[in-house]
Write a structure and sequence with these properties.
Strand content: 15-25%
Radius of gyration: 19 Å
Structural class: alpha+beta
Largest sheet: 4 strands, antiparallel
Shape: globular
Strand order of the largest sheet: 4-5-7-8
Length: 275
């Protein structure tokens, strides 16, 4: 079983090379295409019938989810206000390891059950785009010190925790919390669960680890160097390294409940700089 999980995890990492120039020097293909504008918004999750599966969709190789997965809090507004950077700014990255295959297999199996019983596709391109935009938006608010803008997107307890952690950083260290789409190297689930409380309500929790390029000075992130190796910088540019961030997303699945996904837990390796 562990062997099967290792091979499957390797396939995901191998697919990463096809989407990012620089991950494997021998793969010179273009970068992944831009995502539709509709996927770059954090809006409420709507329960709608699935659109018909056409030949065009099949050609694109995308699965249609039964629920339209977008995120709450920033309707009709793009998360990332920063201009997109070219892929030339990304150093060469090589894959030197794999994630824990048992965790990968367990999460994938649970995600399959969530889709089967609750019609919520956590493997969809929409969900992946939404959580990345959530990371970009929340990290930008933290880096600029606009913690009040996190209300409604992040739990009250986590906002207090984030504000305390960010205040212990210098201005330069806090600004390095900001993440752009080009900084995101990889993303994998670490835990997926559905919880029932005593009142019969159902909640879905998804914990995701992001591997991110950063110029943060300080000790290397063990989770970063275990899987990725970044080539030395050239032309006097700051040396980049791969660090990780962990975000937990929470949504109530009970009929009639708010359809919004919210961020319940935030953790960045950057906070180690203040310890």
């Amino acid at each position: 079983m562990q062997r099967i999980g290792s091979l499957a995890a390797c396939r995901e990492l191998g697919g990463l090379a096809a989407c990012s120039s620089g991950l494997y020097p021998w793969k010179k293909g273009p970068t992944c295409g831009k995502e539709p504008a509709a996927h770059r918004r954090w809006a409420g999750v709507c329960v709608r019938p699935a659109r018909p599966f056409t030949a065009e969709h099949a050609a694109q190789g995308r699965r249609l989810c039964r629920r339209r997965v977008v995120f709450a809090g920033q309707n009709h507004r793009l998360f990332c206000s920063q201009p997109p950077r070219t892929t030339e700014s990304r150093p060469a990255i090589s894959v030197v390891g794999i994630p824990d295959p048992i965790t990968w297999f367990r999460c994938k199996f649970t995600m399959y059950l969530v889709e089967l019983f609750f019609e919520l596709d956590l493997n969809s391109a929409e969900f992946h785009s939404g959580v990345k935009q959530a990371l970009i938006h929340v990290s930008e608010l933290m880096s600029s010190g606009r913690y009040h803008r996190l209300v409604g997107l992040v739990s009250r307890e986590m906002i207090d925790y984030v504000e305390t952690k960010c205040r212990s950083l210098t201005d330069a260290q806090r600004q390095q919390l900001a993440v752009t789409m080009e900084d995101i190297v990889f993303m994998l689930p670490e835990d997926v669960s559905v919880v029932f409380d005593q009142y019969g309500r159902k909640f879905c929790h998804v914990v995701l680890r992001f591997w991110i390029l950063s110029t943060l000075e300080g000790p290397d992130d063990p989770e970063g160097i275990k899987i990725f190796k970044v080539a030395p910088s050239e032309d006097g540019q700051p040396q980049k390294k791969v660090v990780t961030a962990v975000y937990e997303f929470h949504k109530e699945l009970t009929t009639g409940a708010s359809p919004d996904w919210k961020v319940e837990t935030i953790w960045h390796w950057n906070w180690k700089a203040s310890e």
